[in-house]
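U., I forgot to send this yesterday:
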Amino acid sequence: MVIYADVLIVLNLIVDYFLVLASSKIIGKRLKTFRILLSSLIGAISSLYIFLPQLSVVWELAFKAVICLLMSATAFGIRSIKQFLKGFGILFIITCSYAGIMMALWHIFKPYGMVINNSVVYFDISPLVLIGSTVIFYLLFVVLSHIFKSSSKTAERCEIVIESDGKSEKLSAILDTGNSVVDLFGNCEIIIADKRAVKRIFGDIEEAKERSKNRYRVVPYSSVSGADILDGFRCDKAKAFGNSKTVLLQKPILAVAKTPLNDGYNAIVNPKILD
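Result:
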């Protein structure tokens, strides 16, 4: 069968677009369309290695891993090693799963017009059929991700973009129902953030307390170890992205966490922030 390179790239671009999109849904990370397209283009161009002689399984996996690393870095960025590896791992599993399902169909049903070499799939079929089957595959992953999320004990996440004095910082926050810290002097939302994230906006905390007295706030809180206070700074505004909606926060307070935050997040908020 004749394999057309242009058709191969276009079809794999469509497939990879939905694979990256499915990965972002499972991770719970919002991606810009151009990032998804650029990542998908890398995967689509890599499909040209279907024209190479049959490679060993080890080389196939190694090649696929390198491509997934590039696609993951393009789509999700590299804000932290842990987040990057998580994005890469999810994308790698999904692409391998897709290739495995296609190979199973190929071996079992031997469909006419389907070619697989070096784990790259080529269909000599109507593009509409391929797009439709890919969309179904994507929707299946979305449904499964919702099932896993509903049964998982892992805290839900949201993204928050803080703005103050022309500076902005993107935070990855967990929605903690146990977080009941409130603003006693107003009706502002409280965002507890890692000290490093706060410093990127306001600079050194001690210096900022003197330099930005009009923004500085004392935030009292209580925990299992007793009552204490947090240093806080009033921001100009913020946008919270979560639960498929965007919420504009007016003059929220960014409080400095007592201990470093990790596990892929750098802020903690109450779920009510998205109401």
